[in-house]
Structure formats: structure tokens, C-alpha cells
Write a structure and sequence with these properties.
- By secondary structure, the protein is of the alpha+beta class.
- 52% of the residues lie in helices and 9% in strands.
- The protein is built from 16 helices and 7 strands.
- Strands 3-4-7-5-6 form a 5-stranded mixed sheet. A two-stranded antiparallel ribbon has the order 1-2.
- Helix 6 runs antiparallel to helix 7 and helix 13 crosses helix 15.
- The chain is globular.
Length: 330
């Protein structure tokens, strides 16, 4: 089963705003994501991480180092109620530990942790399981935005004692100095930045116990909604992924989910997707895996994905990836 979660439109909206001064149409950035202009106008729209990653991939194709810039713009206020809960925490350490309790509300693709190392604390992002081609982008976006959150919480710049990345230095490595004012190591064992552990006890300038308690309760309810929807969506995706050779159709899938087709369609719409979009996404992911086997003929791949004709699969793959299946093969 694909590793997918629900998230908000915050990152997508940020990407669109970042490219707006360059005159890049929103349609170019949203291409292939299934996100439309109507979705952008609804504050309660929820999308899958796969939809978000499609927009991210479009952004990286236009500008390779865009993850650094996007991370710099992702302030604590971008996280809604969780952001205000963090700001009103008693201490810096309390705020960071609260953030780790609600990864779904952070919309992170990583397992975040605070790892003490003597007098240092490493804020670490691990267990990335999404598109490997977007690893550097997502690490940059994650670590830079976490650093920005730290600065916002403290009301001043958090002095960093070091940063490390598990991948090799990109061509634009000189730009990292603009975002990490500290010793920087590539090809390290993890993705993290470090600060003096004494900062964990630092009182926050906007601490407010009454507001904090109210925000915590709202975060708890929102997290329950997010995780509940994620469990439901994961079940839908699991059922559909197991039947790609002979997809059940909306009616058949609804029966397997013990609901009506109308209910299934409405729930999927509320999550920002449709039956066909989920089917296409799962077929595309499976197609990329099967194309890695040079011994498997393309017509066999088409059959395994439920296409009655090889030509139909070729047309669909070009629509998904922009290239023919034969060109995608290594």
C-alpha cells in the first residue's frame, strides 16, 4: 500500500504564491495533482500527500532549490490552531514536544524527534518514505521550516550549532549558508540541526496558559478528524491497490466499504480526490515499479494494471508522467 496521508492546502498555496511574481500560471504547478481552483478557495479542503507531492515535483522542475525558499516562508502561523498552541506554550521545549505529538497537523513526511547529545539537542527528521527524487526538496523544506518555527516561537533567531544532511551536496550547496548559519555536513547519517539544550527551558514571549489550553483541545479534535479520515482513506487505497488487474468500479468499491456509491463519492470529494484519481495514482505507482523489470513486456504491464489495450496504457502513462513507458525504463 502506498504511504499516503491527508494534509491541508498550506504548502500548495505557498508554492503558488512563491511562483506568482515569476508569472508561472497556477495550472502549470497544479498539473496532474487533481487540485482545482475551487479547492483553493475552500479553507477546509483536505488533500492527500500524493497530490501535494505532485505540485512539489512541478515546482522542483522549474527551480531545483525551491525547497529552501519555501521552508523560509513557512512560518508558525501557517499551521493554524497548532501554530497558536505552540506560540502560547510556556517554554520552547514544551512547544517542540507538543509539535511532535501532532505530526498530522504539521503535515510532515518525516518522523520528527529531539535527540540529546551532551549539551546539544538534534532536531531530527527521519523515516522518509515518499518519492526518492524529491528527497532533497522535502528535507530542505522540512528543516528550514522547522528552523523558522523555532525562530518564530522565540521571537529571535535560534543559534544553531550544526546541521547535517544524509544526501550528497547539490549543485546549489552555496545557498545553504543563507538558511543554516552553522557548520554543515553532507553525506551524514541523518537529517538534522542542533542547538544548545539550555534553550529548551527558555520561556516563550507569547505564553498564555488560558489560550494554550483552549488551543490544545481544538488541536486534539482536529487531530482525531485527520487521523480518522486517514484510516478510512488508507482502507480505500488498500482495497483498490489489491484489485488493479480488475478494478471494482465505484459501485463495487462502495460495497466493499459497506456504504453507498453516493456516500463514497461524497467522502472522496471531501478529501479532495475521486475514484478515478485514486485509481490512476495507484496504477501509475505500480506501473513505475513494473517498468523497472526490463524482462516484463509492456503489454503484460498493461494487463496487470487492468487495461484492455496496450495503447490505452501508453496514452495513460504519457498523461501521468509526460513520457512513454518505453522512455521511462532505465
Amino acid at each position: 500500500m502506498l504511504h499516503s496521508h491527508l494534509t491541508t492546502l498550506n504548502a500548495v498555496s505557498l508554492i503558488l504564491d512563491t511562483f506568482k511574481p515569476d508569472g508561472v500560471p497556477s495550472e502549470t504547478l497544479l498539473a496532474g495533482s487533481g487540485i482545482g481552483s475551487a479547492d483553493l478557495s475552500r479553507a477546509d479542503t483536505r488533500i492527500t500527500t500524493q497530490q501535494e507531492l505532485r505540485v512539489c515535483a512541478n515546482a522542483v522542475a522549474l527551480r531545483q532549490d525551491i525547497g529552501l525558499e519555501l521552508g523560509r516562508r513557512m512560518h508558525v502561523s501557517s499551521y493554524g490552531m497548532l501554530g497558536y498552541a505552540l506560540l502560547t506554550s510556556a517554554t520552547f521545549g514544551d512547544a517542540l514536544r507538543l509539535a511532535l505529538r501532532y505530526p498530522a497537523l504539521l503535515g510532515t513526511l518525516f518522523e520528527l524527534s529531539l535527540e540529546e547529545d551532551g549539551e546539544r539537542v538534534w532536531f531530527t527528521a527521519s523515516d522518509y518514505r515518499e518519492d526518492l527524487a524529491l528527497t532533497a526538496f522535502n528535507v530542505e523544506f522540512c528543516l528550514v521550516s522547522l528552523n523558522v518555527i523555532c525562530n518564530d516561537l522565540l521571537g529571535r533567531r535560534l543559534p544553531l550549532l550544526g546541521a547535517r544532511l544524509a544526501y550528497s551536496a547539490p549543485q546549489y550547496r552555496a545557498r545553504y549558508a543563507e538558511y543554516f548559519d552553522c557548520a554543515l555536513q553532507f553525506d551524514a547519517g541523518s537529517h538534522a540541526f542542533a542547538f544548545d539544550r539550555r534553550w529548551l527551558d527558555q520561556p516563550l514571549p507569547l505564553a498564555d496558559a488560558v489560550t494554550h489550553c483552549a488551543m490544545i483541545e481544538r488541536c486534539r479534535k482536529q487531530n482525531a478528524e485527520f487521523t480518522g479520515r486517514q484510516v478510512w482513506l488508507d482502507r480505500v487505497r488498500q482495497l483498490l491497490a489489491a484489485q488493479l488487474t480488475a478494478a471494482p468500479g465505484l459501485e463495487g468499491l462502495a460495497e466493499q466499504m459497506n456504504c453507498s456509491a453516493r456516500t463514497l463519492r461524497r467522502h472522496l470529494h471531501d478529501l479532495g480526490c475521486s475514484y478515478q484519481e485514486l485509481l490512476d495514482e495507484l496504477r501509475f505507482e505500480r506501473a513505475k515499479q513494473l517498468l523497472g523489470d526490463d524482462e516484463l513486456p509492456i503489454y503484460r504491464i498493461a494487463e496487470q494494471l487492468g487495461f484492455s489495450e496496450t495503447a490505452s496504457f501508453r496514452h495513460a502513462f504519457v498523461r501521468w508522467s509526460g513520457v512513454a513507458p518505453s522512455q521511462f525504463r532505465p
